[in-house]
From TrEMBL:
Name of this chain's protein: Phage head-tail connector protein
Source domain of life: Bacteria
One matching Pfam family: Phage_connect_1
Length: 110
C-alpha cells in the first residue's frame, strides 16, 4: 500500500527512509481509525482505497492539523470535520454487507 500511496502523491521512485516512515505511520493511523469506525473489525483489502485516499488527505494536511480552514496568499482551503466524511456512505454499505453492527460492538450474526 505504501507504493500506491507514493505513486498517488507523485513520490514513487524516491528512496527516502524518513518519508517512508512518515507515510507508513499515516497509513497505520488511517487504518486504525477506519477500524474504529467499523466497530473494531479489520477492514481487510476491501477498503484499501479508502485507506489510500484518506492517507493522501492526511499527508496534504501536514502543517494544517486542527484547522477548519487555511488561507495562504489569498487562497483559502476548507477542511471537512472528518477526513472520512466523504467515505461514510461506502463505510456504511460495507458494514451492512458484512453484517457489522457497531452499536453492539462488532459483527452481528444472522
Amino acid at each position: 500500500m505504501l507504493e500506491d500511496l507514493k505513486r498517488m502523491l507523485g513520490l514513487s521512485g524516491q528512496k527516502d527512509e524518513e518519508l517512508d516512515q512518515k507515510l507508513e505511520w499515516i497509513l497505520y493511523a488511517t487504518t486504525s481509525r477506519l477500524k474504529v469506525l467499523l466497530g473494531g473489525i479489520d477492514p481487510g483489502n476491501d477498503l484499501d482505497y479508502i485507506v489510500t485516499e484518506v492517507s493522501i488527505i492526511r499527508y496534504n494536511r501536514i502543517g494544517s492539523e486542527g484547522f477548519q480552514s487555511h488561507t495562504v496568499e489569498g487562497e483559502s482551503v476548507g477542511f471537512l470535520n472528518s477526513d472520512f466524511d466523504s467515505y461514510m456512505d461506502d463505510i456504511e454499505t460495507y458494514k451492512r454487507t458484512k453484517n457489522i453492527d457497531t452499536a453492539k460492538g462488532g459483527i452481528r450474526w444472522a
